[in-house]
Amino acid sequence: MNIRQASSQYESWMSAQVRLLPADLRLKHERMRQGPFPFLRATYYRWAQVWPEACARFGLGPPVLSVGDLHVENFGTWRDAEGRLVWGVNDFDEAYPLPYTNDLVRLAASAFLAVEELDVSPKHAAGEILRGYGEGLKAGGRPFVLADRSNPLRDMARHRLNEPEKFWNKLRELVPLKKQPRAEVIEAICATLPAGRIPLRFAHRIAGLGSLGRERYTGTGVSQGAQIAREAKAGALSACLFAEGKAGGAVYAEEIVRQAVRAQDPFWKVRGSWIVRRLSPDCFRLELAHLPRERDELYLLYCMGWETANIHLGSGAPGAILRDLRGKGRHWLFKAASVMREQVLRDWREFST
């Protein structure tokens, strides 16, 4: 099927699982037309359809519990149980058992397409992602806890913390809901709040691209004299099931987070059919535009590769993956990601006309 057919069928498939918001879907389609990188972020369902065949000649490799929808803006920060600032993969909505190469190829292809924000050559980008991934596997992984020592990643991640009022102002600008969200949403959010009665102001928040169209609620309030916020997003099955022609299956978000080499976010929870998390200036997805102008982009890509290894080590055998990597041809990741970049560009042009 072509991209238009895929999009229509995916939205029909998704509507059988969760409530979709027509206005948000129209906005998603508009943003998909804005450029190849937002198109990639919004269309994991298409990637899941075409990737296995398009990249088969490079060898798909051993399976792991994969992020699936991995890209250069699927990273963010949070605070662990010790209050330490941590950086890593931010969203696991599309987690699914896949060959380990899926996440690497998608991450590299996204770097190739993010040309407005990244100033690195595709070969260098692929090389640093692969170097970080391989060294992370060999080391047995290590979370990116940014409190222990100074490094370029900490400086980049902390840049957006300099003006927290911008974050809170954006939340205050959200239009309050005319009526309270469903009881299950309120219960999911309140289960993560501090003890005591905290009145909340609820709003519908538009965020992300892959999940745009689903319900997403933000509750803000005041606790001990300062603002707090929680988000509840409707969970759904991975688009990999759509690509496989299945109407149902398992959800892997909790499992992949639990198994990963990770300093866990104690506020990230799955409550029924809702994914709940704390929102704050230091607990948020990092867009490339949020990072300082002066940044070490190759080091950032290296860290993204290492963090991918942190995730894969939860379910994969590092020895088997490393053996598979050694058997691949030179520049295989650059070549495979280039194939997928061209596929994304073709689909984007067809969708945008």
Any chance you could write out the topology, listing elements then pairs?
Elements: H1 3-15, H2 22-32, H3 36-42, H4 44-54, E1 63-66, E2 75-79, E3 85-89, E4 96-99, H5 101-113, H6 122-139, E5 144-145, H7 152-158, H8 164-172, H9 183-190, E6 201-204, E7 216-223, E8 226-234, H10 239-243, H11 253-259, E9 269-271, E10 274-279, E11 284-285, H12 297-312, H13 318-326, H14 332-352
Antiparallel strand pairs: 1-4, 2-3, 2-11, 3-5, 6-7, 7-8, 8-10, 9-10
Helix pairs in contact: 4-14, 5-6, 5-12, 5-14, 6-12, 6-14
Could you please describe the fold and organization of this structure?
- By secondary structure, the protein is of the alpha+beta class.
- It has one domain (3-162, 246-266, 282-352).
- The protein contains 14 helices and eleven strands.
- It has helices at residues 3-15, 22-32, 36-42, 44-54, 101-113, 122-139, 152-158, 164-172, 183-190, 239-243, 253-259, 297-312, 318-326, 332-352, and strands at residues 63-66, 75-79, 85-89, 96-99, 144-145, 201-204, 216-223, 226-234, 269-271, 274-279, 284-285.
- Strands 6-7-8-10-9 form a five-stranded antiparallel beta sheet, with helices on both faces.
- Strand 7 and strand 8 form a beta hairpin.
- Helix 5 (101-113) runs antiparallel to helix 6.
- The radius of gyration is 20 Å and the shape is globular.
Brief summary of the model shown:
This protein is α+β, with helices and mostly antiparallel strands and 353 residues long.
Please describe the structure with a list of short key phrases separated by commas or semicolons.
globular, 44% helix, alpha+beta, 5-stranded antiparallel sheet, 11 strands, 353 residues, 4-stranded antiparallel sheet
